[in-house]
Amino acid sequence: MTTYIRRGALDIASTLDQFIEQQALPNTGVDFAEFWHSFEQVLTEFVPKNNALLEKRSALQAQIDTFHTTQPDASFAQYKAFLQEIGYLVPVPGDVSITTANVDPELATMAGPQLVVPINNARYALNAVNARWGSLYDALYGTDVIDDEDGAEKTARYNPLRGQKVIRQAREYLNDIAPLANGSHVNATRYDISTGQLLITLIDGTQTELANIGQFLGYQGNPEAPSCIVLVNNGLHVEIQFAENHPIADADPAGIKDIFMESALSTIMDCEDSVAAVDAEDKTLVYQNWLGLMQGSLSTSVQKGDQTITRKMHADRVYTGVNGQALTLSGRSLMFVRNVGHLMTNDAILFNGEPIPEGIMDGMITTLIGIHDLRRNSPFSNSKAGSIYIVKPKMHGPEEVRFCNDLFNAIEDALSLERHTLKMGLMDEERRTSLNLKACIAEAQHRLVFINTGFLDRTGDEIHTSMKLAAFAPKAELKTRPWIHAYEKSNVITGLSAGLSGKAQIGKGMWPIPDQMANMMEAKIGHPKAGANTAWVPSPTAATLHALHYHQIDVFGLQQTMVQEEFDGTDTILDIPLLEAGRVLSAREIQAELDNNIQGILGYVVRWVHQGVGCSKVPDIHNVGLMEDRATLRISAQHIANWLEHGLVSLEQIDETLARMAALVDEQNAADAEYIPMTPNLNQSIGYQAARDLIVLGSVQPSGYTEPLLHARRREMKASLAAH
């Protein structure tokens, strides 16, 4: 049972209260009593506003439901006029141009990969913050980017045949990154800077230099025999590392041991979709890890064989520049923190006896912790520009963005921060936001640093919004329909027209299959080609590989060719991706869809509810590992709920499939010692019941969100585990 400490009108869970007093507040310059007094004032002003916005969401959805049930044959013009009449579609503002200042180059003027990791997992968080640099050799050797043909299989011990393929491919990438004036890096036998310039000797004995000598920035070690040289291309840095008495370098004609890529320029430390945090204990861990990152003290121990390795944050990388002066590059990914959206409450703090909106709590506490970075209470610096970067998810339309902006103003005032110290990352993942994106940007124009599309949540909201109209197309077909392409393009063009290029990130979504890097390399180059200067990847390895795309595409140059492009995708975005009129799916097609969706739901939910794992690689029905979080769950649950609503599937069919897939998921997880099976007593399995609720009650969940049901079931599970 939670013990609370009374402070004014607030009751704070003792574990959180102690953390704030003893760990978070010291050295911030913020007084303990004043902090809680200011917090109470913020809640007094913003809790009623938060509640009113949620009520408006429900009211709009109720009006849309009524329209679809009473006018199912309405024309498109009637539908669009109705959305304008009820305020779902708002007038498009005139010229909008963001004025955000004090933005770090990782977000404003550099293009590269972005990671999203659950902040409650210290190992994942450290891996991500340290993924600013990654070994290209390791990324190629350990993934399917390099094929297994001709004896080049991945083996327990180093396979020199595979290694040679890796080296050749890496040198081919060097030709893309920093081409030579003559010849190829594949034929280089020496890299020499003894004259102060970079000279490359080729296999035939001739010497050449870089086609663009300005790409050579500096080196480490002795210029006669450097340990590494650093190059730059499209704003991204690359190290060519050398060594003596090293097995790989000794077999390399130029003595190269590795090529290190500047990889994940930024990371979102996530308090939201990838995290299972349902109470004061969970939230305190979230905040403790954020504090460790802001103070540079977070560490974790990893067992490798007989050795215990302590992981901590990497230092900056220092070189001798071509001018003889020290050159320093960041050794860490720039960190955002993603707060929770407006919907959920959390009883870690009670206000007038009621749990407070979790988004307000996150805003106040993660900002307090961010002050440690502003005051340089760390051996490392996150934002050299003096900003705190907060991603706000799941906002519906400009009114909710305005609320968030006003909340950030109030938090800055409460903590004596300069106006617009808090920067906003805006997730364009809800239908009312993507349709009104320009108006949303206008509401945050002084602090916006990021807009990002999110196909899975966006599709979940697409289904829920039009739940009552008709059955949707099969899930895999939804991403092929015109609406999604218009949504993705509109996001980029709207962002560019609002002046984001050179000031903020325009981002794209996740590659979900971490074991299929060859396919990622084929597909994900489409994101920078679309004008996005960042995109999400599922791992540090994927970040190193995806970084190659930003060497191949000059994103900011491309954006300049797109900045005058006009595109109004509203009507196409409003093209609801329903099952085509007259199309009848076979029983086999319906059952296959149901099997696939339900297996994925169960595989994710049982870990979330039983183990508190909010993000993990979950095997799909074909045993392909997919990165899953609540966004993937939302789309799958809403899709089945929609088919149930319109009679394509029955409740009996759903229950039969749930039982059959539960046995499969248990089998897939048999090797996990921490796993709690659902079978044979399905009625006693809290995780199983959560999954069923998400489907059967999906049509009445607010915006189709999974959090209310998941949180309730996870709390039930924690109570059950505590009782035993």
Automatic annotation (TrEMBL):
Main location per the UniProt record: cytoplasm
Subcellular location: Cytoplasm
InterPro entries per record: Malate_synth_C_sf, Malate_synth_sf, Malate_synthase_TIM, Malate_synthG, MS_C, MS_N, MS_N_TIM-barrel_dom, MSG_insertion
Domain Malate synthase C-terminal: 589-675
MF (Gene Ontology): magnesium ion binding; malate synthase activity
Pathway(s) annotated for this protein in UniProt: Carbohydrate metabolism; glyoxylate cycle; (S)-malate from isocitrate: step 2/2
Keywords noted in UniProt: Acyltransferase, Cytoplasm, Glyoxylate bypass, Magnesium, Metal-binding, Oxidation, Transferase, Tricarboxylic acid cycle
Gene Ontology CC terms: cytosol
Malate synthase TIM barrel domain residues: 335-568
Residues that coordinate or bind acetyl-CoA: V116, R123, Y124, S274, R311, P538
Keyword Transferase included in the entry's annotation: yes
HAMAP family, A to Z: Malate_synth_G
Function text: Involved in the glycolate utilization. Catalyzes the condensation and subsequent hydrolysis of acetyl-coenzyme A (acetyl-CoA) and glyoxylate to form malate and CoA.
Subunit structure: Monomer.
Identification of the protein by name: Malate synthase G
Organism: Opacimonas viscosa
